[in-house]
Each structure stands twice: as structure tokens, then as C-alpha cells.
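Input C-alpha cells:
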């Protein structure tokens, strides 16, 4: 079971689909990810869970808060550059949602306790 819900879960499904495309074509994985790609996907899930913008976040590409470490940020960029264009054929709805989300503007300051993790801990 995923920690994420709502829009964050959809974003995680999008990055997961891109990761599967990337891993299959670069590391020879069929329907499962290699350990390196799985570790990166787990890292991405944690970052989404702790995003200070929570459900109101736009695309990470334009975010003023840099929550990815430099190495993982570069790896995710590679995955998205490769998997993004190929998403239109395999997962058109996720791809279109992702493209629309890239146009969304970030609020100037993240709201207090808006992260998915903070909301879980308040319950």
C-alpha cells in the first residue's frame, strides 16, 4: 500500500510508468525494475510524501524548494527525458495530466503542514 493519496498518488503512478519504460529500455527489465531503478522510485515516493506543497504542488521541475539530492535529481531528469515522450503512447492520460500539471504555478510559500506526511501524522 502506498503512502500517497489523491494527486500525489497520480503523480507517483506517472513517475512509476516513466521508470518502467526507462528501466526496460536501459537495463533490460521486463515488468519489474532493477534494484537501482527501484531505489530511485522509492526515493521519489518519499520526496512526494514529504513535499511541503502537498496536494497543491505543481511539477517538481519548477519548484522553488529543492528536496531531491543532486545525484537523484539528475537521475530523475534522465528518466523523465527518456520516458516522458514515450508515455504518450503507453499511458496517454497520465502523460497529458503531467503536461497540464507543468503549467500550474506554485504558490509563493508552502502552506504550514500541507505535506502528505504531516497530514498522516496529525491523524
Amino acid at each position: 500500500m502506498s503512502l500517497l493519496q489523491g494527486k500525489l498518488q497520480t503523480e507517483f503512478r506517472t513517475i512509476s510508468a516513466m521508470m518502467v519504460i526507462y528501466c526496460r529500455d536501459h537495463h533490460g527489465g521486463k515488468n519489474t525494475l532493477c534494484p537501482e531503478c527501484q531505489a530511485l522510485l522509492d526515493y521519489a515516493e518519499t520526496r512526494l510524501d514529504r513535499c511541503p506543497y502537498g496536494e497543491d504542488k505543481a511539477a517538481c521541475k519548477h519548484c522553488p524548494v529543492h528536496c531531491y539530492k543532486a545525484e537523484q535529481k539528475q537521475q530523475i531528469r534522465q528518466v523523465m527525458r527518456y520516458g516522458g515522450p514515450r508515455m504518450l503512447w503507453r499511458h496517454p492520460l497520465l502523460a497529458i495530466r503531467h503536461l497540464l500539471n507543468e503549467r500550474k504555478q506554485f504558490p509563493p510559500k508552502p502552506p504550514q503542514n500541507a505535506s502528505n506526511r504531516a497530514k498522516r501524522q496529525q491523524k
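The two ends are 18 Å apart (CA to CA). DSSP finds five helices and no strands in the chain.
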